Amino acid sequence: MAGRNHLYVPGPTNTPDSVLSAMHVPMEDHRAPDFPNLVKPLLDDLKKVFRTETGQTFIFPATGTAGWEIAMNNTLSPGDKVLSYRFGQFSHLWIQSAQRMGLDVEYHEVPWGEGVPLDHLTRRLKEDSNHEIKALLICHNETATGVTNDLAAIRQALDEAGHPALFMTDGVSAIGSIPFFMDDWGVDVALTGSQKGLMLPAGNAYLCFSQKALEMRHSAKLPRSFLNLDDHIQANKDGYFPYTPNTAMLHGLRKVLDLLLEEGMDNVYARHHRLAEGVRRAVLDGWGLTLCAKDPKWYSDTVTAIVVPEGHDAREVMHVAYHRYNLSLGAGLTEVAGKVFRIGHLGDLNELMLASAIVGAEMAMRDVGIDLKPGSGITAAMEYWRDTAAPLPA
């Protein structure tokens, strides 16, 4: 098929050409005396993406899934109680990971399309007067349903209850794209992967630990070897790693951090919100469809999960989009399989790039018999983007 594939799954995301070029380097000695000149600034600048001055960042040759284990096995012990909410595939998988590691997982079911119920959380924390709950496991952005949780409000619930539980968050489809403030929100462990807002291939996990969470490693009894923070702390202080890193990815990360920090994190957040709102206008105002996220307070600025009308299968939309229009859309997972398809809108994006996802999705939906007015989606999106465009330079 002529042209390129248009990738609009919510990860992996499009990698900028400048980042691809930065990774095109010869293999190098990761024990060389000048290697710390690359590593130390990376760890420092990652803190600017996590929005922390007091936390400590780590780079693991792993994925966000491994990030869950790194968060838990460096802070907790077998049988420790953790509290979580199941409201999508990735919150489900983190719960499953905690169970497999031998933790006592208390989780509560939430309808998919909603997020953490703050009233319930506050009540449950206040009930736990003996502080048996050792950690909260919270997905900041549930990629499967396009739902974003209010982390500031979750911190407020912890503070109102006077509860000392560690506040852990999966920021895989959030960090580097939507507002995240580790210090201001009192997050103790935050994790993300390389393939989403950080615009790299999959293969690296990035984590940040508060000083409180770092201290917990001295009493944590869960087994850890390859994912042991102690080894990284010892090696990182001199600018090295405890084992062989992916050096090409480190050069790519250097370029990514340069791009993000040059744009400014607040501007990155604003860009993602504006682009996401254009997609939502296409879905709601143009096509007249509904979102999986049940209320505007849950809307995600990195991924939109679109509910297809009754009697249609979202998998058919995706099949047509891919094979006829060379467009990759995100699938509905488990409980929403066949009910939704997803448009990812995070990372290296602008209006015209995202317009291709809207147009391609509309064509595919019309091809499978979904009754839409031709051009309705992109018209709604482009009018919003035109109305909110930045002034032209003088």
Write the layout of secondary structure elements.
Layout: E1 6-8, H1 17-23, H2 36-50, E2 56-60, H3 64-73, E3 81-86, H4 89-100, E4 104-109, H5 118-127, E5 133-139, E6 141-142, E7 147-148, H6 151-161, E8 166-170, E9 189-193, E10 205-209, H7 211-216, H8 229-236, H9 247-263, H10 265-287, E11 290-291, E12 303-307, H11 314-325, E13 327-331, E14 340-344, H12 351-367, H13 376-387
Helix pairs in contact: 1-9, 2-9, 5-6, 9-10, 10-12, 10-13, 11-12, 12-13
Q: What is the CATH top level name of the largest domain?
A: Alpha Beta
- Order of neighbouring strands in the sheet with most strands: 2-10-9-8-5-3-4
End-to-end distance: 42 Å
- Given the helix and strand composition, which structural class is it? alpha/beta
**CATH topology call of the largest domain:** Aspartate Aminotransferase, domain 2
How much of the sequence lies in strands comes to 15-25%
Helix-strand pattern, N to C? Answer: EHHEHEHEHEEEHEEEHHHHEEHEEHH
Radius of gyration: 21 Å
Number of domains: 2
Shape annotation: globular
Mean pLDDT: 97
Q: List the uncertain runs.
A: none
